[in-house]
Write a structure and sequence with these properties.
Alpha-Beta Plaits, Malonyl-Coenzyme A Acyl Carrier Protein, domain 2, 2 domains, alpha/beta, four-stranded parallel β-sheet
């Protein structure tokens, strides 16, 4: 079984889209996306510097547009994706890419939502000096205790012995000064404490906007950030996606879902790398590919030919796709994609 994964904020880097825009029609599609979001994604994907790309309102629309641009070179439509992949998942803002890729939302709906998501989260982040730091290594229980002691939230639990702590800059500095035993604390270049209560104002804005949408049915099940549950009902997934803005990302549970499904191959769309690295550590024996430039497309097509076309899990009540039941892991480590 093949799965596609869609990265989150923090995966972007200066100039990462330049080689993709050499493909026929790519620049035209990005101009259309730019018109929808009201920003120059062509410039941001090719010449904007790292500080500009750090802006949440810039990064999030760029990441969604880039993911859809790269995916288009492999699958032509949501229906085509459904015939190719057994499941998909997006990390944080990547859930909007996943929704558009599967047809749960149209590309334009996803781009409008990500525009407002980025603006809302940027505004919420500006209200108080907050940030995020990766905690690498250490005993999970000791790491959790240290975060609680400093009033920090484990905002990203990605597995592999990593957790992202989020909260005020003062609390993050205190954690760095007194890290858990055998752990390193690495500040992340992000503008706020995403996936925490600090983002609550952005949730309300998105919820009001989402109320006017009519989502479709996802062509492939989407493993949700909250718990790894597979969802095909677009309305249900949209509710989850909106709420997720202020809730921790449990990519560790998404990965467990992939393992239970028997995934044999994983392709990460641009800007790729972070989720592929996690998969290498957590999905042993699974073939993985970070789709970084068009030079990677040939291998991606070979992987689709060899692993694609697997039957997707059957959808259960309310659009939740059924999977074999196991006891979820209680570990909560994480990494930097937002």
């Amino acid at each position: 079984m093949l799965v596609f994964v869609f990265p989150g904020q923090g995966s972007q880097s200066p100039g990462f889209l330049a080689p993709w825009l050499e493909l026929p029609g790519a620049a035209d599609r990005l101009r259309w996306a730019s018109a929808v979001v009201g920003d120059d994604l062509l410039a941001h994907g090719t010449v904007s510097d790292a500080e500009t790309l750090r802006d949440t309102a810039v990064a999030q629309p760029l990441i969604v547009a880039a993911g859809l641009l790269g995916l288009r070179e492999l699958v032509a439509s949501p229906a085509d994706l459904g015939r190719t992949a057994g499941a998909v998942a997006g990390h944080s803002v990547g859930e909007l890419t996943a929704a558009a890729a599967t047809g749960a939302l149209s590309p334009e709906q996803a781009l409008v939502l990500v525009r407002e998501r980025g603006r809302g989260m940027a505004a919420a982040a500006a209200a108080l000096p907050t940030g995020m730091s990766a905690v690498l290594g250490g005993d999970p229980e000791e790491v959790a205790a240290a975060l609680a002691r400093h009033g920090l939230t484990p905002a990203n639990a990605n597995g592999g012995g990593q957790v992202v702590a989020a909260g005020t800059l003062e609390a993050l500095a205190a954690l760095a000064a007194e890290p858990p035993a055998k752990a390193r604390v690495v500040p992340l270049q992000v503008a706020g404490a995403f996936h925490t209560e600090h983002m609550a104002p952005a949730v309300g804005t998105l919820r009001a906007l989402a109320a006017g949408l009519e989502p479709g049915t996802a062509s492939a099940p989407i493993a949700a950030n909250a718990d790894g549950e597979l969802v095909t009902d677009g309305a249900l997934f949209l509710q989850r996606l909106v709420a997720q803005v202020s809730r921790p990302v449990r990519w560790d549970l998404v990965t467990e879902t992939f393992a239970r499904l028997g995934v044999s191959a994983l392709i990460e769309v641009p800007p790729a790398g972070t989720l592929t690295n996690l998969a290498k550590r957590q999905l042993k024996g699974v073939e993985v590919l970070a789709l970084k430039t068009p030079d990677d497309l040939e291998r991606a097509r070979t992987m689709i030919a060899e692993h694609g076309g697997a039957t997707s899990p059957a959808a259960g009540p309310a659009g939740a796709a059924s999977t074999p039941t196991t006891t979820p892991s209680t570990t909560t480590p994480a990494e930097a994609a937002l």
